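Internal tracking record. Fields below are filled automatically when a chain is submitted to the structure queue. Please do not edit lines marked as system-generated. If the sequence contains nonstandard residues, flag them in the REMARKS field before resubmitting.
Queue: standard
Priority: normal
Entity type: single polypeptide chain
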Amino acid sequence: MWFRNIQAYRITSGNITPDSLEEALSQHALQPCMQMELQSRGWLTPRDEQPNFVHAYGQHWLIAFGVEKKLLPAGVINQHAKNRIVQIEQMQGYKAGKKQVRDIKEATIVELLPRAFAQRHKTYAWIDALNNRLILDTSSSHKAEEFIEVLVKTVPGITLAPLETKISPSSAMTRWLTVDGDLPSIFTIDRDCELQGMSDEKETIRYSHHVLEAEETARHIRAGKKAIKLAMTWDSKISFVLQDNLQLRRIAPQDILKESTESAEELFVSDFTIMTGELSQLITDVVDALGGEDRS
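SYSTEM-GENERATED OUTPUT FOLLOWS
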């Protein structure tokens, strides 16, 4: 398994071990939604066929957060409520007031909830205990915030802060796209980027599968635009898109993973070992390219 996105956090406090983490997560496992619940949150095992809530390899630990939501579309609620409002108005002989309509909608939700289908979503995270980092595999800020909120409530003493760098990603990417850009040699620039104006209109230029000529991108930069996304490759091993909020997206290993005759369990362990080793160094090199970590 490979993460396709990275949102990184620094673990600022908390004495965590795989055993203490296993105990804490197991006590807050995801439970199915009750009849009258719209949502349930909790922890899942990273692998469905394994009982452990923590998959540990050395100082790298994989965990999984789950959210179960009842599928109750607004359109369905509104249609049922509308039918009921029509019936009630016919019975009482006058139009329903705002409070009555609101009460009918609430009663409709109560009626429909037990019959609603439930859908589960799993979000993976990996704790890099060597570097005191938590790495989330999601591009959604909402899912990341939800994950962190529940983790802090679940694991006693743990505190986290978003990983930040001394140089903003946007400033560095903008500089790298100029003729005299000082991109570290371990990185190469690929063929996708996004430039955005700094005016209120935020005019945007997107390059997709396009060779990025320094003279051309520099001309846009001189006209007042800055880079907010840039596709790159690290050490000829991993391609990704760096975002202006320090997220890494569209992560893809390049010829690192080979065809294997290993069992599913052996392959999972092998992939996790390779992924954590490579991505931990990638994150470190990205941080170094952005002037180092800002812990102020």
